[in-house]
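Follow-up to my post from last week.
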Amino acid sequence: MTTHNNIRFIQGNEACVEGAIYAGINFFAGYPITPSTEIAEHLASRLPQQGGKFIQMEDEIASMGAIIGASLTGNKVMTATSGPGFSLKQEALGYACMAEIPCVIANVQRGGPSTGNPTHVSQGDINQARWGTHGDHAIIAMTASSHQDVFNITVDAFNMAETYRTPVIILLDEVIGHMREKLVIPDPGVIPVVKRLQTSVPKDVDYHPYLPREDGRLPMSDFGGEHRYNVTGLFHDMWGFPSNDPKIVRGLLRHLVDKIENNVSDITRYKEYWLDNAEYVLVSYGAAARSSIHLARNRQARGVKLGVLELQTIWPFPAELVREKCAGAKAVMVVEMNMGQLVAQVKSAVDTPDKVFLCNRIDGELISPTDIKTALRMIQGKGV
Amino acid sequence: MERSRLIFSGSGGQGVITAAIILAKAAALFENKHAVQSQSYGAAARGGSTRSDVIIDDNQIFFPKVTQANILISLTQESYNTFSSLIRPGGLLLVDSKYVTVEKKVAAKHISLPMFDTVQQKIGNPLVFNICMLGAVIGLSDLIRPESIINVLEKSVPADFLDINRTALDLGVSMGIKNRN
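User reply:
Got it. Predicted complex:
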């Protein structure tokens, strides 16, 4: 067989890099940390080839600040981190939410809290991605279980960051980040790429950086270019100047949340396996989804009606989708590698929370199909 | 084809992980198969046992780790002691005779080959020990064609080193074929 230049056999972290390049990244700032380091490493060589800029900053806080600044000046930006690095980024991440600055943050999850278990797998940052920064806000967080999907959701992440003017978090895990498998890079144009929406307001004419168009989107002007405007983490008016006028505070907070929560169906990405007539449904994501699908395929071959709902959009949580897909099941098992973070969301989404169970593993090893099979037997009343 | 699950083990610096990546890449890019490679390591890994898992199959691979190996390769005594229990009964266990004494506690086919010594005598450069080992795996198992390994090496190895890699692969393949039964 022949091979083509667009076929790679690479790590998941590299698939994320290829997705970012496809989406048009031209600025990356970061501080290397296991298990996300390969994202920085490969962008350090790939970005200059594309005419972009790579900068290794003094720490994760500065990296987050750097991408926010670079985004404001018109660049498509990303940073990547893991574990405690993700904690350090939270304050500036909130700033990007408030100031509505498009940016992508890849967090390749490892065991925590603190420095935890750097070289081993975990999915313990699900809730941190949602509520790591303080105050009411909405956030988009995506994940994937195969390199092709890592590529796709990375392009999606850049697109959504532009569409909704918001930070988007890519939540990978150590297994997906480090394992190698095939990736086929689509030709340019196969996956649509969202460009920065630029204002049509001419130079020296009053530009309102925070005045949404009728469709809710806010056109941007490259900072330092044709228009003078203010950017702040304080509640602000349509010129970007600080305000504590109750109407403005309420209006801005509603806008920040509604622009994402009102578009859940457009933001939701998922995959389903054997869900038609499934008696038992596994809800999973990331590396844990690979084990879930492995088991379901084996059980299907033996006539067991076991299906899998693999979530790729974690936040905003697609509650309607989960409710609908789990409606006919005798039992639902949430398969994740933490103490039960997404299971709480699934329980609150379905009509009968009592039939939702957690199947987890928290020892740094990838949850196995056997682990899931054992848990399934327990809830079926068959014992181990 | 039956799903092949391999564990490559040894100590840091022997090139076991590189060999695993080359094999999986060759299978995925040049044999039209599905392949997944993963590895495990610690925060303080210096020396000690290193391990890489490879799965090759005609069907899509989801769970990427090997729990029971059809083929286990151990290039140090420590890695043999650590991982030999993971071999499937009836599987193939390949070790280097210079570094590993086998105890044959498991019901697998034990093959002990002088791969390191052969490379030292015939090539004089231990750098390609891992490629000789890969040749032996292919010679013993018919997993993929040696040309597919060469195709990967041509793209990843500096041109000056390609010849000794070819020689090492050939040496391994013929040792493997001789010991097939």
